Amino acid sequence: ISSTKKRKAKTDLDETRPYFEALRVEIKRIFRQDAMPAESRYFYPVNVKEKLTGTFACLLITGDKGLAGAYNYNVIKKAMELLDYGCEIKWYVVGEYGRQLLQQRGIPVEKSFLYTAQNPTMQRAREICSILLSAYERGELKEIFVIYTDMESSLSSAAHSTRLLPFHRSHFSTSAKEKQEKAVTAPFEFIPSVTAVLNNVMKCYISGFIYSALIDSFCSEQNARMTAMDAANQNAQELLDSLSLQYNRVRQAAITPEITEVSAGAKAQRAQRRKEV
Predict the structure, then answer these.
(1) pLDDT single digits (tens) 82-115
(2) In terms of C-beta density within 10 A (0-12 exposed, 13-18 middle, 19 or more buried), how is residue 97 classed?
(3) Which of 14, 125, 217, 228 is most buried, with most CB under 10 Å away?
(4) Judging by beta carbons within 10 Å of its beta carbon (0-12, 13-18, 19+), is residue 94 exposed, middle or buried?
(5) How far apart are CA 219 and CA 215, in angstroms?
(6) HSE-up of 82 (CA within 13 Å, CB side)?
(7) Positive or negative CA dihedral for 15, 65, 221, 74?
(8) Rounded to whole angstroms, how far apart are CA atoms 74 and 125?
(9) How far apart are CA 138 and CA 129, in angstroms?
């Protein structure tokens, strides 16, 4: 069941990822223009290198239940590391496991998305993005973090704590490979302005990032569940083998005296016959 769910979710992500990768490329192209604004609310201030202070937001993505190995534990461990920042954190939670654990620790939850983590969709990602961006644009949040599990391969996954907003400009810097691409000779024309275009594109890009995080977390959970169930099957088989070995030893220990008694009786009877003869 987990294998089927993971395969379907991975297919959905692969079908939408090219669009958001294209958005990333277009954002890079905007940065390569002289018309790029010096400041944008979605990017770190140009002349500020130290950490921003104020209220942070954390979107925590967990599973709805356990039986998935260390999947939920690793995400929660990453989330608790944010407390070292020493700033006020507003928690936005996807997944029943994360909601219950924060409640047990007495940590208030700003917004709990009650729909299941087992069915990530683009529509839900847009709803989460809208709520986070509304608070960010009102100035209530200085930074937004997303804590999720990234399935690096079919055999391994790792929990990540990623700052969603504000972006560093280096996040969209041009790599050495891209520098070899054909240069853009004609300037772009931005209508109504480069700032308006960039802000609109960034909203779509952030929605795509959240959707990707939801899908990656879901796939990682299913992968962890398959691994946990496989380990449980192996442990159960080892236990059965051990019990079978103990049973055979006890059975052999019970049979051996009986065989000895039968053999001794037969030997005594042969001796008695020889004596009579």
Answers:
(1) 777 667 888 888 888 888 888 888 888 888 887 7
(2) buried
(3) 217
(4) buried
(5) 6
(6) 25
(7) positive
(8) 22
(9) 14
How many other CB atoms are there within 10 angstroms of residue 59's CB atom? 25
Q: Quote the CA–CA distance of 13 and 197 in Å, as a whole number.
A: 25
Phi/psi of residue 154, nearest 5 degrees: -70, -15
What do you get for the CA distance between the two ends of the chain, in Å? 77
Q: Which amino acid is at 230?
A: D
Six-digit token pair at 244? 């079978």
Q: For 2-19, b where at least 16 C-beta lie within 10 A, e where not — what string?
A: beebbeebbeebeeeeee
The pTM (predicted TM-score) of the whole model is: 0.72
> In whole angstroms, what is the distance from residue 249 CA to residue 247 CA?
5
